[in-house]
Amino acid sequence: MIARSLKWSRHNLFAKPFDVLLSLTVIPGVLWLIWQIAGWALTVAQWDIIPQSLRVLMIGIFPVDQAWRTWVAAMIIAALLGAALGCVFAFRGRHAGGLLLVVAVALVLTGTKGLANILCVAALVALFGLSWALISRVPAARRGLVPASFVGLIAIFAVMAPPGAGLWGGLLLSILLTLVTAVVTLPIGILLAFGRRSRFSSVRWICTAYIEVMRSVPLIMVVYWIWILMPVLTPQLNLADVVRGMIGFTLFYSAYVAEYVRSGLQAVPRGQTEAARSLGMSEFDINRSIVLPQALRVVVPPLVGNVLDIFNTAPLVFIIGLTDFLRAGQMILANPQYGDRTYEVYSFLFLTYFLVGSLITFVARKLEKHLARGSR
Amino acid sequence: MKLIKLLTAGMFAGLAVTAGHASASVLDTVKQRGTLNCGTDNTAPGFGYLNTTTGQMEGLDVDFCRAVAAAVLGDASKVKFVTVTDKSRFDAVLTNQVDVVFAHTTIKPARESSIAIDFLPVNFYDGTGVMVKTESGVKEFADLDGATFCTTQGSVTETVLTSAFKARGWEGSKVLTYENLEKLFAALNSGRCNAMSTDKSALAAWAGNSPTPADYLILPDTLDKSPFGGFVAANDSKWRNALRWVTYGLFQAEESGITQANLEEKQKSEDPFVQKFLGVGGGYGKDFGLPDDFVAQALKVTGNYGEIYARNLGPDTRMFLDRKGTPNALWTEGGAIYSPLWN
């Protein structure tokens, strides 16, 4: 063991004089940093603020007596995410152990808050696991996934809407925004990508112009413009801030999805289309059954990366007055008695973002390997 | 950048007008709708924030929203708080997404002239202040010639300080900037700075929340004024006047000694002014399109201005802002909180 690690470090850390120099400066630096942070986290930091304000961080100012609605929404989200995961990874026994660990961690955070919450957390993880297992074991169920995700999103809106869409907030809002954007941009992006390759020059021009305009302006501007323009142009519609935010995100990210998909379309060898055409297939059938499946296969990893992008830019909705996860943290810090807990709250935000972000990256990387197997 | 901002704002004001909203007063819209959409911040300690223990919005601005809802609709629970940010607050009002904004907004001429909004009376006087350690013996700003001042990065305070140095011909004085108030306060404590400078409301909170508040002295000087006021969309006198007199009502109630607690007793008062002020047997409201007892309705919910102040900013709160000797005191006590004549 020791011999092996010595060998490993000689190969990886102390191979050349420059490596030695680099290792000797970086490693103590990193250790010192970890020591400092751990020392602060374990002795100085007052973490009680996190469990105390966990509800605000998770669901914002959503009324307490209506909190069951957010649990229902969270369960639908968990089921959808589990199903999505099931398309890629087969569910195995050891994964169940991992899920139990998640329950345990969640209980440490919420444990003091009563039986109902414990049951809800358990149900959440159970639903995630169940839909994961179902989709990975019963491939036929995958056909229903796309309609199911749209139905799921509509169900979430229906269940969350009654107390007022202005009350949505916290991590739930961030995830919801990401999910809606990710799901809705996909069909729009595919249409735009095909539109940009269309034989009709008017369609081609419109799609190209749309994509290029959206890609050359900042997201925050699109979101803000949609937010001010919609009530002026359509005063009778009276859409909630949160819906306008989602529209802004969708309009913006559709252009990016379109470009990813287009790169996939270009990667499909010409021979495929020509072969299909010689078989007498119609243009529509060729695109639907031959080109698109192969193209999507190529672009799934960047599309997953795009989801991470959406999640990380979600805090920008603060500009239109929405209380996303980050803003919820700032809202807690605005309480005068919590003025000195800046580092605790931001550390928690950082850890959560880091956790979700690295999870998505991990899935994307696995996905890439998984898909590469088919094209070897 | 500023020009673009103003242009866009002007454009939207134009659009809003052409969309046909200008005809009816917001007052009628609010009464018809039965709810008040009030724009507030939700991350401003003492002004607009969510109290995480009670789950309620609290703060001076929030109380003004509730007072307006009570005065106009007779029910403070009919207020819907819409979060606005420093960036979105003007557009929110211009596009009719909120009826009024109370969001610690500094009243400036450019804002009224080019953004098409009208301000309501000042409800809080803030300004750039200077805090020193008591042991330094400094008593006023003039004692600080040659001192090192510290403030936050990218704030207007830096400009305010340097122009103050220039005006006084102080060549030895310099300004150090820090990333946030926490570091700024630490720098004052460690002696890196002789004085710390930022908004007076923030200075009081930092000194008061420290373990030894007596170690710090906020100098009486105010280097740069920053009067806060709510605002509404321009050219709607009916709505603006109604809200102005709601605000003045809260000021006048304090001056006349009417509080949340003694309201019922005062309503039985024989004093003809108090009777009319509180809308007992006819009042001032009708002419504004408000109920006659609009001031009483507001007082029932929030109390008078002094009570609102004490509850959100006063020495008993974590904001530690004493009104005494500041413009936020009633004019009878040397401050600038003043209501015009009612009768």
TrEMBL record, chain A:
It comes from the Bacteria. CDD domains: TM_PBP2. One of its GO terms (molecular function) is transmembrane transporter activity. Residues 171-364 form the ABC transmembrane type-1 domain. One of its GO terms (biological process) is amino acid transport. InterPro entries: AA_ABC_transptr_permease_3TM (IPR010065), ArtM/GltK/GlnP/TcyL/YhdX-like (IPR043429), MetI-like (IPR000515), MetI-like_sf (IPR035906). One of its GO terms (cellular component) is ATP-binding cassette (ABC) transporter complex. Its main location: membrane. It holds the Pfam family BPD_transp_1. The chain crosses the membrane at residues 20-38, 71-93, 99-132, 144-161, 167-194, 206-230, 242-261, 303-325, 345-364. The keyword Metal-binding does not apply. It is found in: Cell inner membrane; Cell membrane. Keywords: Cell membrane, Membrane, Transmembrane, Transmembrane helix, Transport. The keyword Cell membrane applies. Belongs to the binding-protein-dependent transport system permease family. HisMQ subfamily. This is General L-amino acid transport system permease protein.
From TrEMBL, chain B:
Keywords: Signal, Transport. Residues 1-24 form the signal peptide. Residues 35-266 form the Solute-binding protein family 3/N-terminal domain. Pfam families: SBP_bac_3. GO terms for biological process: amino acid transport. It comes from the Bacteria. Belongs to the bacterial solute-binding protein 3 family. This is Amino acid ABC transporter substrate-binding protein (PAAT family). It comes from Shinella granuli.
